[in-house]
Amino acid sequence: MDTTDASQWSEDRNRNEWGSTSRLLAQVPADKAEVFSSVGHDDNAGILVSGAGALIAAAGITRNPTCPILVDRRRYAGRNRPRGTARFDPAWIESQRALDTAIVLTDSGYVGEGDREALVAILEQTTMAGDNVCAVLPLHISWLAEPGVKLLTGEVNQHQVPVALVLEHATDPLGTQKAVSGLKQLLDQAQVPISLLCTDISGLGAIAHGAAWAAVGVTSALRHLYPANKKGPPPPPVPARHAIVPRLMTFMNAGRIAEGWALARGHEDLDENLWRCWCAECGNRTMDRFATCAELSLAIHNISILEELHQQITGPDSWERAIRDALGCYWWMKDEYRLTWKPPGFMNAWLPRSRH
Q: Could you tell me the fold of the domain covering 3-222?
Protein backbone atom coordinates (compact mmCIF):
# COMPACT_ATOMS: atom_id res chain seq x y z
CA MET A 1 0.00 0.00 0.00
CA ASP A 2 1.15 3.56 -0.63
CA THR A 3 1.18 6.13 2.17
CA THR A 4 -2.33 7.40 1.41
CA ASP A 5 -3.83 3.91 1.30
CA ALA A 6 -2.02 2.88 4.47
CA SER A 7 -3.34 5.95 6.30
CA GLN A 8 -6.89 5.28 5.11
CA TRP A 9 -6.66 1.63 6.12
CA SER A 10 -5.36 2.58 9.56
CA GLU A 11 -8.49 4.68 10.06
CA ASP A 12 -10.84 2.10 8.56
CA ARG A 13 -9.68 -0.87 10.59
CA ASN A 14 -10.12 1.09 13.82
CA ARG A 15 -13.83 1.29 13.03
CA ASN A 16 -16.07 -1.73 13.29
CA GLU A 17 -19.73 -2.64 13.15
CA TRP A 18 -20.14 -1.87 16.85
CA GLY A 19 -19.12 1.79 16.61
CA SER A 20 -16.20 1.08 18.92
CA THR A 21 -12.63 -0.12 18.71
CA SER A 22 -10.69 -3.07 20.04
CA ARG A 23 -13.45 -5.06 21.71
CA LEU A 24 -12.60 -7.62 24.38
CA LEU A 25 -15.23 -10.37 24.38
CA ALA A 26 -15.97 -13.06 26.94
CA GLN A 27 -16.24 -16.40 25.11
CA VAL A 28 -18.73 -18.64 26.92
CA PRO A 29 -19.88 -22.23 26.28
CA ALA A 30 -23.38 -22.53 24.84
CA ASP A 31 -24.49 -25.04 27.48
CA LYS A 32 -23.67 -22.52 30.23
CA ALA A 33 -24.44 -19.28 28.42
CA GLU A 34 -27.21 -18.34 30.84
CA VAL A 35 -24.88 -18.85 33.79
CA PHE A 36 -22.19 -16.64 32.27
CA SER A 37 -24.49 -14.07 30.65
CA SER A 38 -23.59 -11.39 33.20
CA VAL A 39 -19.90 -11.26 32.21
CA GLY A 40 -18.56 -9.09 29.42
CA HIS A 41 -20.82 -6.10 30.09
CA ASP A 42 -18.06 -3.49 30.23
CA ASP A 43 -18.60 -0.56 27.84
CA ASN A 44 -15.98 -1.94 25.45
CA ALA A 45 -16.76 -5.63 25.91
CA GLY A 46 -19.26 -8.24 24.73
CA ILE A 47 -20.19 -11.93 24.77
CA LEU A 48 -19.37 -14.65 22.25
CA VAL A 49 -21.39 -17.84 22.70
CA SER A 50 -19.66 -21.02 21.44
CA GLY A 51 -20.89 -24.46 20.52
CA ALA A 52 -23.49 -26.27 18.43
CA GLY A 53 -26.29 -24.76 20.50
CA ALA A 54 -24.90 -21.23 20.40
CA LEU A 55 -27.79 -19.69 18.44
CA ILE A 56 -30.48 -20.95 20.79
CA ALA A 57 -28.41 -20.03 23.83
CA ALA A 58 -27.68 -16.52 22.53
CA ALA A 59 -31.36 -15.97 21.77
CA GLY A 60 -32.13 -16.64 25.42
CA ILE A 61 -29.72 -14.03 26.74
CA THR A 62 -31.28 -10.73 27.78
CA ARG A 63 -29.87 -8.19 25.34
CA ASN A 64 -27.85 -5.25 26.61
CA PRO A 65 -27.65 -2.43 24.02
CA THR A 66 -24.01 -1.74 24.93
CA CYS A 67 -23.00 -5.42 24.94
CA PRO A 68 -22.80 -7.03 21.48
CA ILE A 69 -23.43 -10.76 21.16
CA LEU A 70 -21.69 -13.07 18.69
CA VAL A 71 -22.12 -16.79 18.11
CA ASP A 72 -19.50 -19.35 17.06
CA ARG A 73 -20.66 -22.79 16.00
CA ARG A 74 -17.23 -24.25 16.89
CA ARG A 75 -17.61 -26.76 14.07
CA TYR A 76 -13.82 -26.83 13.75
CA ALA A 77 -13.28 -28.43 17.18
CA GLY A 78 -13.27 -32.09 18.20
CA ARG A 79 -11.92 -35.27 16.71
CA ASN A 80 -14.42 -35.44 13.83
CA ARG A 81 -14.10 -31.85 12.69
CA PRO A 82 -14.63 -31.19 8.97
CA ARG A 83 -11.91 -29.85 6.71
CA GLY A 84 -12.08 -26.19 5.71
CA THR A 85 -13.32 -27.20 2.26
CA ALA A 86 -16.70 -28.11 3.80
CA ARG A 87 -19.55 -25.89 2.68
CA PHE A 88 -21.05 -23.35 5.05
CA ASP A 89 -24.58 -23.97 6.26
CA PRO A 90 -26.72 -21.13 4.83
CA ALA A 91 -29.15 -21.52 7.73
CA TRP A 92 -26.33 -20.82 10.19
CA ILE A 93 -25.48 -17.57 8.40
CA GLU A 94 -29.08 -16.40 8.06
CA SER A 95 -30.00 -17.34 11.62
CA GLN A 96 -27.31 -14.98 12.90
CA ARG A 97 -28.78 -12.19 10.81
CA ALA A 98 -32.23 -12.97 12.19
CA LEU A 99 -30.77 -12.83 15.70
CA ASP A 100 -29.12 -9.52 14.77
CA THR A 101 -25.68 -10.50 16.04
CA ALA A 102 -23.05 -7.77 15.90
CA ILE A 103 -21.19 -9.63 13.16
CA VAL A 104 -21.85 -12.94 11.38
CA LEU A 105 -19.27 -15.68 12.00
CA THR A 106 -18.85 -18.51 9.51
CA ASP A 107 -19.20 -22.16 10.54
CA SER A 108 -15.80 -23.03 9.11
CA GLY A 109 -14.00 -26.33 9.11
CA TYR A 110 -10.33 -26.75 10.03
CA VAL A 111 -7.31 -25.56 8.01
CA GLY A 112 -4.43 -27.99 8.51
CA GLU A 113 -0.72 -27.50 7.93
CA GLY A 114 -0.13 -26.26 4.38
CA ASP A 115 -3.79 -26.81 3.41
CA ARG A 116 -4.14 -23.83 1.09
CA GLU A 117 -7.21 -25.33 -0.56
CA ALA A 118 -9.08 -25.29 2.76
CA LEU A 119 -7.94 -21.73 3.50
CA VAL A 120 -9.08 -20.45 0.12
CA ALA A 121 -12.38 -22.34 0.36
CA ILE A 122 -13.29 -20.57 3.60
CA LEU A 123 -12.31 -17.13 2.29
CA GLU A 124 -14.11 -17.61 -1.04
CA GLN A 125 -17.30 -18.76 0.67
CA THR A 126 -17.12 -15.76 2.99
CA THR A 127 -16.90 -13.33 0.06
CA MET A 128 -20.14 -14.82 -1.28
CA ALA A 129 -21.97 -14.87 2.06
CA GLY A 130 -23.05 -11.23 1.99
CA ASP A 131 -22.41 -8.21 4.17
CA ASN A 132 -20.96 -8.16 7.67
CA VAL A 133 -19.59 -11.72 7.54
CA CYS A 134 -16.28 -12.61 9.21
CA ALA A 135 -14.33 -15.68 8.11
CA VAL A 136 -13.49 -17.92 11.05
CA LEU A 137 -10.05 -19.40 10.32
CA PRO A 138 -9.17 -22.36 12.59
CA LEU A 139 -5.49 -22.79 11.79
CA HIS A 140 -2.63 -25.18 12.42
CA ILE A 141 -0.03 -23.10 14.22
CA SER A 142 2.41 -23.45 11.29
CA TRP A 143 0.36 -20.80 9.48
CA LEU A 144 2.03 -18.20 11.71
CA ALA A 145 5.51 -19.27 10.60
CA GLU A 146 7.18 -18.70 7.24
CA PRO A 147 6.22 -19.41 4.53
CA GLY A 148 2.69 -19.95 5.89
CA VAL A 149 2.17 -16.45 7.27
CA LYS A 150 3.15 -14.84 3.97
CA LEU A 151 0.69 -17.05 2.11
CA LEU A 152 -2.00 -16.44 4.73
CA THR A 153 -1.56 -12.67 4.54
CA GLY A 154 -1.67 -12.74 0.74
CA GLU A 155 -4.88 -14.77 0.60
CA VAL A 156 -6.58 -12.66 3.27
CA ASN A 157 -5.70 -9.46 1.42
CA GLN A 158 -6.78 -10.89 -1.91
CA HIS A 159 -10.22 -11.90 -0.66
CA GLN A 160 -10.79 -8.73 1.38
CA VAL A 161 -13.00 -10.18 4.11
CA PRO A 162 -12.53 -9.78 7.89
CA VAL A 163 -11.09 -12.86 9.58
CA ALA A 164 -11.10 -14.29 13.10
CA LEU A 165 -8.24 -16.66 13.88
CA VAL A 166 -8.59 -19.78 16.02
CA LEU A 167 -5.10 -21.05 16.76
CA GLU A 168 -4.46 -24.74 17.38
CA HIS A 169 -2.01 -25.87 20.04
CA ALA A 170 -1.86 -28.40 22.86
CA THR A 171 -1.05 -25.69 25.42
CA ASP A 172 -0.38 -22.09 24.34
CA PRO A 173 -0.38 -21.20 20.62
CA LEU A 174 1.18 -17.79 21.28
CA GLY A 175 3.80 -19.08 23.70
CA THR A 176 6.71 -18.78 21.25
CA GLN A 177 8.34 -15.79 19.58
CA LYS A 178 7.94 -17.43 16.19
CA ALA A 179 4.15 -17.58 16.52
CA VAL A 180 3.87 -14.09 17.99
CA SER A 181 6.13 -12.69 15.27
CA GLY A 182 3.88 -14.24 12.63
CA LEU A 183 0.76 -12.80 14.24
CA LYS A 184 2.35 -9.36 14.44
CA GLN A 185 3.28 -9.61 10.77
CA LEU A 186 -0.28 -10.53 9.82
CA LEU A 187 -1.76 -7.72 11.91
CA ASP A 188 0.66 -5.23 10.41
CA GLN A 189 0.21 -6.23 6.77
CA ALA A 190 -3.45 -7.25 6.61
CA GLN A 191 -5.77 -4.94 4.70
CA VAL A 192 -8.85 -6.22 6.55
CA PRO A 193 -9.77 -6.46 10.25
CA ILE A 194 -8.08 -9.38 12.03
CA SER A 195 -9.52 -10.78 15.26
CA LEU A 196 -8.93 -13.74 17.59
CA LEU A 197 -11.29 -16.40 18.90
CA CYS A 198 -10.53 -18.89 21.69
CA THR A 199 -7.66 -16.92 23.14
CA ASP A 200 -6.33 -15.94 26.56
CA ILE A 201 -4.31 -13.01 27.92
CA SER A 202 -2.45 -12.84 24.60
CA GLY A 203 -5.68 -11.50 23.15
CA LEU A 204 -4.78 -8.19 24.82
CA GLY A 205 -1.44 -8.27 23.02
CA ALA A 206 -3.20 -8.87 19.72
CA ILE A 207 -5.51 -5.90 20.37
CA ALA A 208 -2.50 -3.76 21.33
CA HIS A 209 -0.97 -4.59 17.94
CA GLY A 210 -4.09 -3.78 15.94
CA ALA A 211 -6.57 -6.65 16.24
CA ALA A 212 -10.19 -5.54 15.88
CA TRP A 213 -11.36 -7.72 18.75
CA ALA A 214 -10.38 -10.76 20.79
CA ALA A 215 -12.55 -13.34 22.56
CA VAL A 216 -11.11 -14.80 25.77
CA GLY A 217 -12.54 -18.10 26.97
CA VAL A 218 -14.12 -18.22 30.40
CA THR A 219 -13.04 -21.87 30.60
CA SER A 220 -9.68 -23.48 29.78
CA ALA A 221 -11.27 -25.45 26.93
CA LEU A 222 -12.20 -22.18 25.19
CA ARG A 223 -8.79 -20.53 25.48
CA HIS A 224 -7.21 -22.43 22.57
CA LEU A 225 -8.02 -25.12 20.04
CA TYR A 226 -6.79 -28.57 21.04
CA PRO A 227 -5.21 -30.64 18.24
CA ALA A 228 -7.58 -33.21 16.76
CA ASN A 229 -5.48 -36.12 18.00
CA LYS A 230 -5.77 -34.85 21.56
CA LYS A 231 -8.83 -34.56 23.75
CA GLY A 232 -7.01 -32.07 25.91
CA PRO A 233 -5.44 -32.77 29.28
CA PRO A 234 -6.92 -35.72 31.18
CA PRO A 235 -9.53 -34.42 33.61
CA PRO A 236 -8.41 -34.40 37.24
CA PRO A 237 -10.73 -35.75 39.96
CA VAL A 238 -11.93 -32.18 40.49
CA PRO A 239 -12.12 -30.02 37.32
CA ALA A 240 -9.14 -27.68 37.14
CA ARG A 241 -9.88 -24.04 37.84
CA HIS A 242 -7.69 -21.22 36.60
CA ALA A 243 -7.82 -17.64 37.83
CA ILE A 244 -5.81 -14.60 36.84
CA VAL A 245 -3.40 -13.43 39.53
CA PRO A 246 -3.45 -9.71 38.70
CA ARG A 247 0.13 -8.81 39.62
CA LEU A 248 1.47 -11.88 37.80
CA MET A 249 -0.89 -11.35 34.82
CA THR A 250 -1.23 -15.11 34.61
CA PHE A 251 -4.02 -17.66 34.50
CA MET A 252 -2.94 -19.84 37.42
CA ASN A 253 -4.31 -23.10 38.77
CA ALA A 254 -6.43 -22.42 41.85
CA GLY A 255 -4.45 -25.04 43.79
CA ARG A 256 -1.21 -23.21 43.15
CA ILE A 257 -2.79 -19.92 44.23
CA ALA A 258 -3.89 -21.58 47.46
CA GLU A 259 -0.32 -22.81 47.95
CA GLY A 260 1.04 -19.27 47.64
CA TRP A 261 -1.55 -17.88 50.03
CA ALA A 262 -0.84 -20.61 52.59
CA LEU A 263 2.85 -19.73 52.46
CA ALA A 264 2.11 -16.03 53.04
CA ARG A 265 -0.26 -16.80 55.89
CA GLY A 266 2.35 -18.98 57.57
CA HIS A 267 5.10 -16.32 57.51
CA GLU A 268 4.38 -12.92 59.03
CA ASP A 269 7.27 -11.31 57.12
CA LEU A 270 5.80 -12.18 53.70
CA ASP A 271 3.65 -9.67 51.81
CA GLU A 272 0.22 -11.24 51.43
CA ASN A 273 -1.14 -8.64 48.99
CA LEU A 274 0.04 -10.72 46.03
CA TRP A 275 -2.75 -13.16 46.85
CA ARG A 276 -5.52 -10.59 47.32
CA CYS A 277 -7.64 -9.22 44.49
CA TRP A 278 -9.10 -5.73 44.32
CA CYS A 279 -11.71 -6.32 41.60
CA ALA A 280 -15.37 -5.61 42.41
CA GLU A 281 -16.17 -9.32 42.51
CA CYS A 282 -13.38 -10.16 44.98
CA GLY A 283 -13.49 -7.05 47.15
CA ASN A 284 -9.91 -7.53 48.39
CA ARG A 285 -10.60 -11.10 49.45
CA THR A 286 -7.80 -13.62 49.25
CA MET A 287 -7.68 -15.64 46.06
CA ASP A 288 -7.59 -19.04 47.73
CA ARG A 289 -11.39 -18.77 47.46
CA PHE A 290 -11.16 -19.70 43.77
CA ALA A 291 -10.75 -23.36 44.66
CA THR A 292 -14.36 -23.54 45.84
CA CYS A 293 -16.22 -20.44 44.61
CA ALA A 294 -19.02 -20.57 42.04
CA GLU A 295 -18.02 -20.80 38.37
CA LEU A 296 -19.68 -17.48 37.69
CA SER A 297 -17.72 -15.71 40.42
CA LEU A 298 -14.47 -17.08 39.00
CA ALA A 299 -15.42 -15.98 35.48
CA ILE A 300 -16.43 -12.49 36.62
CA HIS A 301 -13.09 -12.10 38.38
CA ASN A 302 -11.12 -13.18 35.31
CA ILE A 303 -13.05 -10.99 32.87
CA SER A 304 -12.95 -8.03 35.29
CA ILE A 305 -9.17 -8.23 35.51
CA LEU A 306 -8.89 -8.53 31.72
CA GLU A 307 -11.17 -5.52 31.24
CA GLU A 308 -9.03 -3.50 33.64
CA LEU A 309 -5.89 -4.49 31.73
CA HIS A 310 -7.66 -3.71 28.46
CA GLN A 311 -8.26 -0.14 29.62
CA GLN A 312 -4.62 0.27 30.61
CA ILE A 313 -3.08 -1.31 27.50
CA THR A 314 -3.46 1.10 24.60
CA GLY A 315 -0.69 -0.08 22.28
CA PRO A 316 2.51 -2.13 21.97
CA ASP A 317 4.48 -0.04 24.47
CA SER A 318 1.92 -0.31 27.27
CA TRP A 319 1.48 -4.03 26.52
CA GLU A 320 5.22 -4.64 26.82
CA ARG A 321 5.34 -2.54 29.97
CA ALA A 322 2.58 -4.65 31.54
CA ILE A 323 4.52 -7.81 30.69
CA ARG A 324 7.75 -6.46 32.15
CA ASP A 325 5.93 -5.45 35.34
CA ALA A 326 4.53 -8.97 35.66
CA LEU A 327 7.92 -10.55 35.01
CA GLY A 328 9.39 -8.28 37.68
CA CYS A 329 6.76 -9.59 40.09
CA TYR A 330 7.83 -13.15 39.28
CA TRP A 331 11.42 -12.23 40.20
CA TRP A 332 10.21 -10.52 43.37
CA MET A 333 8.20 -13.62 44.27
CA LYS A 334 11.32 -15.73 43.83
CA ASP A 335 13.27 -13.51 46.22
CA GLU A 336 10.44 -12.94 48.70
CA TYR A 337 8.69 -16.32 48.70
CA ARG A 338 11.48 -18.56 47.38
CA LEU A 339 8.99 -19.75 44.78
CA THR A 340 10.66 -20.42 41.44
CA TRP A 341 7.49 -20.60 39.39
CA LYS A 342 8.18 -20.14 35.72
CA PRO A 343 6.35 -17.29 33.98
CA PRO A 344 4.04 -18.36 31.14
CA GLY A 345 5.72 -18.56 27.76
CA PHE A 346 3.61 -15.84 26.16
CA MET A 347 5.35 -13.14 28.21
CA ASN A 348 8.82 -13.50 26.73
CA ALA A 349 7.28 -14.40 23.39
CA TRP A 350 5.68 -10.95 23.08
CA LEU A 351 8.79 -9.02 24.13
CA PRO A 352 11.34 -7.97 21.48
CA ARG A 353 14.50 -10.05 21.71
CA SER A 354 16.63 -7.02 22.45
CA ARG A 355 14.71 -6.30 25.62
CA HIS A 356 15.07 -9.57 27.53
A: TIM Barrel (3.20.20)
